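Predict the holo structure. Ligand: flavin mononucleotide.
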Amino acid sequence: MNVVTTVIKSRHSVRKFKPDPVSDSIIKDALECAAQSPTAMNIQPWLFGVLKNNETLDKIAAIADHGKFIAECPLCFAVFGEKKEIYYLEDCCAATENIILALQAHGVTSCWVAGEKKAYGEQIRLMLGVPEKYSLVSLIAAGYPKEITLTGKKEMKDLIFNEKYG
Ligand SMILES: Cc1cc2nc3c(=O)[nH]c(=O)nc-3n(C[C@H](O)[C@H](O)[C@H](O)COP(=O)(O)O)c2cc1C
């Protein structure tokens, strides 16, 4: 293990946060890591919203069916992708994970909340004044953890094959 893999393995989705703010320097670092993500044909079809306003977070929580905890987090990122680009979803998922891991490296926990395929994605786009060419791919609720719940993972032996399956 090294420092990067330790950070990756220490990540868990956190849905209960302390109210303490996340510093602008950590936010900037996470956004720079997002912008550094791999992206098909280097199109970089993403747009990142940084949301801290309580009223905005309350409104998003009210319509995100599995994201009610967004009302309690001090920070939320909204990752949008340019729909016309064939690999926008893959690119924006890579950027989402980079944000999550960069935050984790700073001790800031988070939870990926679905955006793509959700009807509320369009409502959130309109609420934030984002141009129509973008689609909401993900929300990332973030903050310092109040409670961490561990999830079970499949066994490595059931996930892997070498050279040929079976
Ligand atoms: C595409 C995607 C969408 C997700 N949407 C939600 C969501 O809407 N609400 C939520 O609480 N968690 C959501 N999650 C987080 C997963 O529930 C979580 O990653 C999974 O249970 C594994 O737990 P872990 O992240 O702690 O390893 C989402 C994760 C992904 C990758």
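The first strand starts at residue 16 and ends at 17. The radius of gyration is 16 Å.
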